[in-house]
Amino acid sequence: MSHHESSLKAQFYLTAPQPCAYLGGREERKVFTTLQGSSAVGVNNALSLKGFRRSQSVIYRPACVGCSACMSIRIPVAQFQSSRTQRRILRRNADLIRRPCEAWATEAQYDLFRRYLDSRHAAGGMADMDAFDFASMVDETPINSTVVEYALEDRETGTQQLIAACLSDILGDGLSMVYSFFEPGVADRSLGAFMILDHIALAAEMGLPHVYLGYWVPGSPKMDYKVDYRPFELCDGANWRRFRGRDEYRIWRSRNQPPARDPLET
Predict the structure, then answer these.
(1) In this predicted model, what pLDDT tens digit does every residue of 149-182 receive, in sequence order?
(2) According to DSSP H, which parts of the chain are helical?
(3) Degrees (nearest 5) of the Cα angle 194, 195, 197?
(4) CA 105 to CA 110: how far, in whole Å?
(5) Considering the domain boundaries, does residue 41 fall inside one?
(6) 55-60: which pairs have CB atoms within 8 A and are 24 or more residues apart?
(7) Number of domains present in the structure of the chain
(8) pLDDT tier, 8 (very low <50, low <70, confident <90, very high otherwise)
(9) What is the CATH number of the domain that holds 200?
(10) How far apart (Å, rounded) are the C-alpha atoms in residues 59 and 54?
(11) By three-state DSSP, how is residue 229 classified?
(12) Is residue 263 part of a domain?
């Protein structure tokens, strides 16, 4: 592990190589720093603009040798154009109640999170997370975060059933969707897609220009859904570039090789 001091007054570290979770036969490394004290919000905002991603009190970016496949992706809210399928998803979920909450883990959230993991990601890296791990993921945020819950109301009793939730950061220029989960047995609602669409609407209501979706990895099927929201913007570690869709990106990529970068250059 190595470290470096940048103009952001943060100390950066490199993780040791380990197998890539997205592309077989490759190794991944990350450059990261901790978020703490009065500088946490400023550092988080500045590094998010450079393609970094927060996880609890750490903010990181891929820094893999010989590979630049992972790119931070965000949706420009004002320019977003929903597809016919996305409009159907919004109509299908018009009965859901959005409930923004303080970033504080609840038992109902954890129960939903556990059902989601057991059904969708039983062999994933988060499969062994218990209630304390979940609470750490939600509670240990040094910046302005929220849990956006989505509930279905029983018209007869007035009770509300939590069926989806997303831990989201409120950045200076947008909402960053850190982790979302939903009721696995409700397949006809496309809840994962709905939460992205609703975050685009929520960002617009808050006057925020972007929704950050983490990393897109071309060639990784489980990440491919992120470019269904158009236009989208990709960050190469320094600059953001807007694309109207996959085809435009492929044409651009065929003509431009991503520049090599120092993994500790921020």
Answers:
(1) 999 998 888 899 999 999 999 999 999 999 999 9
(2) 40-48, 84-92, 107-120, 131-139, 191-206, 246-255
(3) 65
(4) 7
(5) no
(6) 55/178, 56/136, 56/137, 56/140, 56/141, 57/140, 57/141, 57/142, 58/32, 58/33, 58/34, 59/32, 59/33, 59/34, 59/35, 60/30, 60/31, 60/32, 60/33
(7) 1
(8) low
(9) 3.40.630.30
(10) 4
(11) coil
(12) no
Judge whether 175 lies within some domain: yes
Q: Quote the pTM value.
A: 0.91
The set of residues, in sequence order, having a beta carbon less than 8 Å from that of 224 and lying 6+ positions away, is none
Any domain includes 169: yes
Q: Which tokens sit at 57? A: 């009190």
C-alpha pair distances (Å), 154 with each of 94, 147, 160: 14, 22, 6
Contact 29, 263 (CB under 8 A): yes
Sign of CA dihedral 186, 190, 194, 196: positive
Return the pLDDT at 121.
77
Beta-bridge partner residues of 218: none
Task: For residue 65, give both structure tokens.
Answer: 């040798």
Residue numbers of the domain that contains 87: 77-206
* Ordered strands of the 58-62 beta sheet: 3-5, 11-14, 30-34, 58-62, 53-55
The encoded tokens of residue 262 equal: 């120092």
User: Which of 95, 128, 62, 57 minimizes the C-alpha distance to 194?
Assistant: 95
Give the tens place of pLDDT for each residue, 243-261: 999 999 989 888 886 554 4
Query: pLDDT tens, 179-225?
Result: 999 999 888 999 999 999 999 999 999 999 999 999 999 888 889 99
Residue 125 DSSP one-character state? T
